[in-house]
Amino acid sequence: MTLKHALSRAALQATPRPIWNMYLRARGLPQVPPARHFDGISTTADPAPLLSGCFAALHEQFIKLNPFYHGSSYLYQHYNDCFFANLCRDVPSDFLIAGVAFGATAKIVYEYVQFPRLGKTLHLVDPFDRRANGRVADTYNADPERVRKLFPSAVVIHQQAIPIDPPGPLAFVLCDTGEPEADLLRYRSMKRSVPATFGFAMAMAEIPRCASRHSTS
Predict the structure, then answer these.
(1) Which of 86, 107, 149, 164 has a Cα at 20 to 30 A from 173?
(2) Domain containing 204: what range?
(3) Are strands 135-136 and 131-132 parallel, antiparallel or unpaired?
């Protein structure tokens, strides 16, 4: 980052947005859009891909798999999950998702990347014992068959808690067990099986292409 960019960012953070936008407008520059909030995540990026198009259609359809989610639950998180899963489509080796519950997240990623076409295996890891943070949670799923029925092919369910010995090299790992600190430790235990790390900016460039791969009708 150059000194000019650093000073500009510092000025933006210290100046109320309406005043900063007046300055940008006077110079003929793009203005900073208002922040949008999604389940505790704020962003000033254009939210259009979250709200319309192929990702939005898939999210609306499959978020209902979890009876405890409402329409916008995990919207931004699932968008980011699809960002990175999409980047890993052509990376050799399999996908792994730990923390499956009712299968909503896994199903959205599976459909978004058109998983059966990739020639990979999706490993779903969950003990299905409804436990989180050492206690039983009624909002979790105890029936692995309920999840298995969602996926016509290319899926293996590991009914156990992580960490597990990785089933082989992995192109994509998503840990969402409801225990964030444990997720980080468990990811580190599997990191040696992940061949590459991808940048967020790269992922953002990939998402709009989904419009050519999915029907939103």
Answers:
(1) 149
(2) 48-212
(3) antiparallel
